[in-house]
């Protein structure tokens, strides 16, 4: 049975891993981890009455003037981020290339401090994440056959799912579109989010193969972004924020990141639980992260952190901020849903800079944080 330590067991229970939140969204109640497949199952009425009774209730609600509300709920359920991209790339839909990508696509997208983890599960990882408003995306990369492939484990790897094709090229195309050269505009400063063009997109690259040999490939493949001046960089003791901020994690070698002491355009994901007396600060790192499960522990029985756990969370976030780093926890409890929401809410209250999420819809709709308001417009890109 999967515990909420699902990130580690993701390879084994892949389907459950990303399916769970959808189910929460649908039913609005807790559902056991093991049950749901990724795609919403066709609804099979358990009882002959189930469907008819449902329709009757619906008709009644409509009759009572609840129409707009019901309508909203229905639309909400039927338009998950993945659904929007259900037909993406299919011949005849006009989405074969990126040409369909209209500025409109991002018009009402407000960037939120969430981090879309494992988003290569989605059909179009990068687009799904930014369309939901997540300011961070993550690619797990493997050096294979002289290229960087993207996937959660080796079984997920395909020759055509590369770091270049799934991340670098789409990012370049989106930025080219946000920065057109017209008679009215000839600048190069807009980011991927229309509503907040100054917001940087954080591209977290998780190295799954040996750091020493894999990292140089990442650095090289960033060249199209580098050439355009779209990478945040450090020079002469100062950080210059640009459209994309690249952060290395996993096997990323810190020594390669800091090899050039005067200039760098990639940053490290520092260990959030080991910052004291360390060399990590904003000149060489962007995030400070750690597994919530490993460092804070289980909150499952209580449904929220104990006093000690809360003190630890606060101390870690404080230390990260003192160093100019952005605090992030991964391996957050995904289930049960009320615990997940409670933890998200507490972390936001405590000043966490980025939420690791697998459920883009739930995270970006904000209705999980009853009472506290999700800081949608907070610019944490600086
Ligand atoms: C990648 O290749 C596989 C197998 O050849 C194919 O089914 C899939 O549609 C391709 N995906 C993309 C994004 O081109
Ligand atoms: C550091 O990077 C800058 C910019 O690419 C380059 O001009 C400089 O030569 C590098 N320094 C070292 C020691 O490699
Ligand atoms: C950041 O850390 C490096 C390496 O420890 C150090 O040389 C530098 O002075 C620090 N910079 C700031 C602004 O703290």
If you had to describe this structure to a student in words, what would you say it looks like?
There is one protein chain. This protein has 382 residues and is an alpha/beta fold. The chain has a single domain, classed as TIM Barrel (Alpha-Beta Barrel), CATH 3.20.20. It has twelve helices and twelve strands. It has helices at residues 14-27, 48-78, 81-84, 125-132, 163-178, 211-221, 223-227, 254-257, 292-295, 307-322, 337-349, 360-365, and strands at residues 112-116, 134-144, 147-150, 201-207, 233-235, 238-240, 244-250, 263-264, 267-271, 285-291, 326-330, 354-357. Strands 1-2-4-7-9-10-11-12 form an eight-stranded parallel beta barrel, surrounded by four helices. Strand 2 and strand 3 form a beta hairpin. The chain is globular and about 55 Å long. The two termini are 41 Å apart. Mean pLDDT is 71; it is low at 1-45, 60-108 and 369-382. It binds 2-acetamido-2-deoxy-beta-D-glucopyranose (3 copies). One 2-acetamido-2-deoxy-beta-D-glucopyranose binds at residues 158, 160.
CATH architecture: Alpha-Beta Barrel
Largest sheet: 8 strands, parallel, barrel
Number of domains: 1
What is the subunit arrangement here? single chain
CATH topology: TIM Barrel
Low-confidence stretches: 1-45, 60-108, 369-382
Instruction: Indicate the CATH class.
Output: Alpha Beta
Number of strands: 12
| N-to-C span | 41 Å
Strand order of the largest sheet: 1-2-4-7-9-10-11-12
Rounded to the nearest angstrom, the radius of gyration is 21 Å
Put simply, the count of helices is 12
Broad shape: globular
- Helix fraction bin: 25-40%
Strand content: 15-25%
| Ligands, ions, cofactors | 2-acetamido-2-deoxy-beta-D-glucopyranose
Average pLDDT metric? 71
The SSE order reads HHHEHEEHEHHEEEHEEEHHEHEH
Structural class: alpha/beta
């Amino acid at each position: 049975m999967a515990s909420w330590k699902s990130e580690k067991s993701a390879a084994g229970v892949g389907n459950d891993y990303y399916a769970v939140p959808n189910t929460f969204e649908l039913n609005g109640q807790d559902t056991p981890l093991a049950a749901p497949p990724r795609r919403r199952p066709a609804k099979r009425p358990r009882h002959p009455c189930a469907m008819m009774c449902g329709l009757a209730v619906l008709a009644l609600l409509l009759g009572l003037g609840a129409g707009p509300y019901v309508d909203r709920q229905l639309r909400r359920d039927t338009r998950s981020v993945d659904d929007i991209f259900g037909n993406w790339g299919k011949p005849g839909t006009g989405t074969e290339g990126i040409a369909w990508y209209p500025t409109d696509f991002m018009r009402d997208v407000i960037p939120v401090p969430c981090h879309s983890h494992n988003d290569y599960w989605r059909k179009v990882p990068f687009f799904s994440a930014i369309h939901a408003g997540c300011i961070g995306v993550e690619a797990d990369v493997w050096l294979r056959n002289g290229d960087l492939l993207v996937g959660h484990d080796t079984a997920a790897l395909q020759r055509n799912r590369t770091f270049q094709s799934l991340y670098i090229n789409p990012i370049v195309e989106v930025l080219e579109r946000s920065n057109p050269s017209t008679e009215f505009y000839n600048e190069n400063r807009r980011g991927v989010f229309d509503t907040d063009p100054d917001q940087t997109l954080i591209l977290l690259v998780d190295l799954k193969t040996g750091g020493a040999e894999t990292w140089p490939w990442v650095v090289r493949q960033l060249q199209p972004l580098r050439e355009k001046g779209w990478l945040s960089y450090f020079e002469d003791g100062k950080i210059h924020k640009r459209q994309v901020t690249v952060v290395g994690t996993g096997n990323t070698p810190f020594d390669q990141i800091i090899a050039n002491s005067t200039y760098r355009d990639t940053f490290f994901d520092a260990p959030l639980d080991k910052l004291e007396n360390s060399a990590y600060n904003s000149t060489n790192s962007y995030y400070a992260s750690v597994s919530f499960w490993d460092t804070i522990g289980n909150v499952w029985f209580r449904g929220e952190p104990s006093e000690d756990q809360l003190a630890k969370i606060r101390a870690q976030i404080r230390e990260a901020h003192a160093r100019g780093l952005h605090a992030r926890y991964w391996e957050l409890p995904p289930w049960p849903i009320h615990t997940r929401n409670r933890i998200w809410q507490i972390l936001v209250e405590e000043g966490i800079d980025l939420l690791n999420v697998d459920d883009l819809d739930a995270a970006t709709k904000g209705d999980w944080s009853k009472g506290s308001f999700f800081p949608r417009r907070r610019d944490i890109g600086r």
